[in-house]
Write a structure and sequence with these properties.
Elements: E1 3-7, E2 10-14, E3 20-24, H1 30-37, H2 42-51, E4 57-61, H3 67-76, E5 81-85, H4 92-101, E6 108-111, E7 114-115, E8 120-127, H5 141-146, E9 152-160, E10 172-177, H6 183-188, H7 191-196, E11 199-207, H8 208-211, H9 215-223, E12 228-233, E13 239-241, H10 244-247, E14 252-260
Parallel strand pairs: 4-5, 4-10, 5-6, 7-9, 10-11
Antiparallel strand pairs: 1-2, 2-3, 8-9, 11-14, 12-13, 12-14
């Protein structure tokens, strides 16, 4: 076991890669895996350890408790930068504490915002028990049947396109998107960054159930971007080439890696 309950609904986890994380003891999504294994999303974790270097600038869209934010904070070092976004205001105190506890506050910026295709206020649906499943899309019956007993609360959140940081950034070595169905609008809101070649590599989670009506829109968006080359990951963090059409033959892929060559 890699976790110890420390009170106040928090568990302290010692990760396999050396970081410390505070997690919510009542969460049924990330918390059980981290307590038992000390690692989450093994393939992406290993990929980042192999590829993120000192001095890199990286972006974490959908930071949750800050697992990947903290990991990348370690990897980019004092000369690097991590820019993180999390729409759920309930998770911001955990992320901030995890950043502080790992002494990486000098290189990490966290924003309580959703990344979207435009500047606007949006409905955001917070999941109570499976805290990693909150989404800009209202959860359908398929979700409620799969995650029995979960409850949903609707709030309003601020949203902005990632292109808002275009003038303040020279290069993004790696960009992670894990926002439970919001991927189409997130990508649409960074078209300027994509077209300029400022983003070198990005990853996103493919989940047909969460994308809902945006499934075909995401496919058509990616189809017109000939500069994108697609890969999936094995548990060692190695990339395996795959075509866009083969990707969309799957209902779910934990991590699609896109390398952008302008």
């Amino acid at each position: 076991m890699f976790g110890t309950y420390i009170g106040n609904n928090r568990v302290l986890v010692s990760t396999k890669w050396g970081g410390m994380l505070l997690v919510n003891s009542s969460d049924l999504s990330l918390t059980p895996t981290l307590i038992i294994n000390g690692i989450y999303d093994v393939g992406l974790t290993n990929y980042l350890i192999k590829n993120i270097k000192n001095g890199d600038t990286v972006v974490d869209i959908g930071a949750n408790i800050g697992y990947f934010t903290v990991l990348m904070g370690y990897l980019v070092g004092n000369d690097g930068k991590v820019i993180s976004y999390e729409a759920n205001p309930n998770l911001i105190p955990l992320i901030q504490d995890n950043i502080s506890m790992n002494y990486i506050g000098n290189r990490v910026k966290i924003y309580n915002k959703a990344i979207y295709s435009d500047f606007k206020k949006l409905s955001f649906y917070i999941t109570d028990k499976f805290m990693g499943n909150s989404s800009l899309h209202k959860h359908d019956d398929g979700y409620l049947n799969k995650y029995k007993g979960d409850s949903i609360k609707e709030i309003q959140v601020d949203a902005e396109p990632l292109d808002a940081i275009y003038d303040n950034i020279d290069k993004i070595t790696f960009l992670k998107i894990d926002i439970e169905g919001g991927e189409y609008h997130a990508l649409k809101g960074m078209e300027k960054l994509l077209a300029s070649g400022k983003i070198e590599t990005l990853s996103f989670e493919l989940n047909r159930g969460m994308l809902q009506d945006d499934w075909n829109l995401l496919y058509e968006f990616l189809k017109i971007h000939n500069e994108m080359h697609y890969y999936i990951l094995n548990n060692n963090g190695d990339i395996i080439s795959i075509s866009l059409d083969d990707i969309f033959r799957h209902d779910e892929i934990p991590n699609v890696i896109i390398k952008i060559k302008i």
